[in-house]
Write a structure and sequence with these properties.
Length: 303
């Protein structure tokens, strides 16, 4: 009797397991037969716009004084006193030091050392009490009403640099501020070690904010042109090739393009797209070839 009961229980379990397996199989088959809705990607389209592209020559160098002069005494002797200090403004004819030229058994009137140029004292080279000769440097003066940024321009770009060409100069001391400059002189030789040519840019410096020795960065205009541009988000890359997406019959299609300069958050389009051809400018990163799309915005300008 017990044996019959065990057999009946086993048969019941087999029937139950078989029924569950059948239901799962039927559910899977129904899911396979059921049509899955096709993915629809919302996108925004727009046309390329014409934009001025300015190619820049970027370089760096140092600020230098317009003139750097050393003052000497015309006579020898002992410095009795200095009349100017570091940072003092000196005018032509101004007395900068007094030299005692007395000798044993002889007395002379103190000799006044005068400057024959204008400038700012950048170094005091001798202190009172020092014995000097006419060849001993006393002071270093710099004329910084005008200064120059001496920069190095790549030899491949030097053909675009002409005397009088405008430039903008920035220095780390004044972040975000630009100083207008012009090309004054171009070296006649090229440095064979780094293939650059030295160029001098002149800058007005009436407030003496620019100091000789400061690191400077300069930009000059190489050329400018009108070119088509699209937002950078409109351009995608597939296997090293740049593309944009166009929309035809509600579907996205890849279109190869050649890109140029980056202008802020836009990129120059050299070829592949015409000025009146709408392309996807938002949502392109979510698309693949032949995806179904819905256009949620259409405009003349990229957003």
């Amino acid at each position: 009797m017990k044996k019959i009961i065990v057999i009946l229980i086993a048969v019941a379990m087999l029937i139950f397991v078989g029924y569950r397996a059948l239901r799962n199989y039927q559910a899977k088959q129904a899911a396979m037969i059921r049509k899955v809705p096709e993915k629809v990607v919302p996108v925004r389209t727009g046309k390329p716009i014409w934009q001025e592209i300015v190619d820049k020559i970027k370089t760096q160098g140092n600020i230098q004084a317009d003139a750097d002069i050393i003052l000497y005494s015309r006579v020898g002797g002992k410095i009795e006193r200095n009349l100017v200090r570091l940072g003092a403004w000196v005018k032509p004819g101004m007395v900068v030091a007094v030299v005692n030229r007395d000798e044993i058994g002889y007395q002379y009137n103190p000799f006044e050392v005068k400057s024959d140029v204008k400038g700012v004292v950048s170094r005091v080279l001798q202190n009172p009490g020092a014995m000097i000769t006419p060849s001993t440097p006393l002071f270093s003066l710099v004329d910084i009403d005008d200064v120059k940024a001496v920069v190095n321009v790549d030899e491949r770009k030097i053909r675009f640099v002409k005397p009088g060409l405008g430039a903008v100069v920035t220095v780390q001391a004044y972040p975000g501020e630009v100083f207008n400059a012009r090309v004054a002189n171009i070296s006649p030789v090229c440095n064979p070690q780094n293939r650059t040519i030295e160029v001098e840019l002149t800058l007005q410096n009436n407030q003496h904010r620019l100091k000789p020795g400061m690191y400077a960065e300069a930009e000059m205009t190489e050329s400018s042109r009108k070119s088509l541009a699209l937002p950078m988000a409109a351009v995608v890359e597939r296997l090293g090739i740049k593309y944009v997406f166009t929309v035809r019959d509600g579907r996205a299609h890849l279109l190869p393009v050649t890109v140029g300069e980056i202008i802020g958050d836009a990129v120059e389009i050299l070829s592949g797209v015409s000025g009146d051809q709408p392309v996807v400018i938002s949502g392109a990163d979510k698309l693949e070839e032949n995806d179904k799309v819905t256009v949620i915005g259409d405009g003349e300008k990229p957003v």
